[in-house]
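ASSEMBLY PREDICTION REQUEST
Request ID: AP-0331
Submitted by: J.K., bench scientist
Number of chains: two
Total residues: 703
Priority: normal
Notes: Please return the full assembly, not individual chains.
Input sequences:
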Amino acid sequence: MKKGKTLCLVLSLLMLVSMFAVAGGQEEKKATGSQAQAVEEPKELRLVAQAWMLGKYKIEEAAAIFEKDHPGVKVSISKVDNADTTTNMLQWATGKTNSDIALGGSREQAVQYAAKGYIINFDEGFFDDKIKKEDFFPSFLELGNIEGTQYMIPITGEVMFIVVNKSLMKKAGLVDANGKVLVPKTWDELYEFAKKTTIVENGKTVQTGLCIDWGTNFMAYSYLACLQGMKGNFFEEDGKTIDFVSPEAKALMSIWAKLVKDGYTPTDTFADMDAGRTNFKAGKVAMHISAASRWVEAGDLLGAANVTVMPIPGTDKNGSLTYIHGAVIPKASPAQNLAKQFLKERLLDKDFHTYSVNKYGKMSPLNSHYTTAIADEWKMVIEATKKAATTPLYKDFARLDKGMQVELQKCITGRQTVDETSINLKKLIDSLDKTTGLK
Amino acid sequence: MFILSILFIVPFVWTLLTSLKINTEIYSSTVILLPSKITFEHYIKVITQMKEFLQYSYNTLSVTFWTVLGTAILSSMTGYAFSKLEFWGKQFYLTFILLVLTLPYAIYLIPIYIMEDKVNIINTHLGLILPYIAINLPMSIFIMRGNFNSIPNGLMEAAIIDGCNFFQVWRRVVMPLAKPAVATIVIFTFINSWGEFMMARTLSYNPAGQTLAVGITFLRDEAASWQYGTLCATITLSLIPLLIVFLSMQKYFIKGIMEGALKG
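STATUS: Completed
Returned structure:
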């Protein structure tokens, strides 16, 4: 028994020692930019992109062209799912990386890397005569900028619009003499449009007038874009706090609730964030507030001639809201110069973007790419993008986003008055850390 | 019972039928139950768009196989020790295992990453097999221990009198009686490892180490949305191995549960 007891103790000790030996004392191996540059520039470039981007952009072709233009250089491409920062943070914290360019994600992700000093600053040696800051849409560039420093280069941009099914609008008589879809100037007009395009048969809605992306991925975008159009900005007087208390903010909540109460706008996006997009593609929705690119996407199923876009009321004058997917370069990368070169030569190349603009409606971040003759819809989209605002970068934005979903859903479904919603959201935003999280 | 069965089967049938429909029928404004024309376009899309499909499948099979094998062997040995042997600290170790069982395994993700990084097994099969075994072991030990508890000690004593050594008692007398419990463990571990996502995503970063659960998410569209045809084809494909394992071991699995294999 004594022998057994000793064995048990020895095994337990061995287990503990091995555990601490492997896990303890993780040494800091942060590779600084200069350290990485000191060694010879490697000939392999590793690009890690969100998987959907490989479907909508000719990234593999871009890699092949780059290899051809730079003999001896090899570009490898790996996929990741969505913008999850865990894997990158873990890798970069140990001074290692499996990517020289991490493609996808937005400023919310970049700030987490920048705060730890894991990504390079593009203000140092990226912009030149070929790629100037002025070439970009200001809002897209801003979405890669954190406290005045460019940590992310926008690769693709989106802008909030109303995607429209022309056939359904025509049936409802909402077109002019030339067959052009009428554009509502105010939310009251948009309400009337939604009313006219909603069809109810035997008590069941068979055609929806207006669908608004209120899903988990779009609630904040929809609210901010609509308020931007109504008010000209979405901040309180301090220019920093998102506004939930002004008459315009309350008017917006009221009209959303009214649209739902009267049956002209469904709430199915609460449960299924793709419901609006899916139903629009099925031809069951006349107008859909979402990203403008959905217009081109839906054209595949509904026919390009049957879909168009129109500005959310007021956004033609005040600008809409944009968001991006950008690229960052980790400091741990030994191929930083090659990565910058690839970004400039290929990922910001006009031909690279033309395909995705035409096929999927994905916007190039460079205004200079839109010099040739383009469709009227694109002119509208570009104008609204030029004047567009960006989502503020709050450290606690995730909490706000969640809170907005909860409170606005209650308001929209009539479980809470507009005033109660306004008070609750004001309390929430006042309790948040509204610094960028960089420091 | 029949109604209950229908309730469980309907989502699977609906998924299968949707995977065989063309997009215009999937997105049709009227509900279409049966496809007017069967199409395999979504399956072709899954396989062609996921160019590394075979690599992911191989990785998944390998990782799952070794995880199931490791878990089955280790849990049957440990379960036997906890059930039939007396040793110092037995109760403490048992409580410790129970404690591990109550913790969400996301908690170990970062320590595991750091440890694996130190020994350079990130993005390898071993890098997934080891944590998977660790995750599945506590529950499996409890299942095996419960099963061994129901085997009378007299049976083992008789075997020892007949000349069996300690290992032979376990191998030749006890294990054949524990087949239903082993089947239960195999199925549970298989399901847990085959579809595990969080560890697989964090501990692997390219097709050499990524599993199907990770590869499937690469078929998602932007903003984490799915094309329904692709989604249904993917679900159908991913269910096939699970169905094969479950159906082939169904008899033992049900017996295992009926005989109290899940008893603590």
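REVIEWER COMMENTS: Residues 24-37 of chain A have pLDDT under 50 and may be disordered.
SIGN-OFF: pending second reviewer
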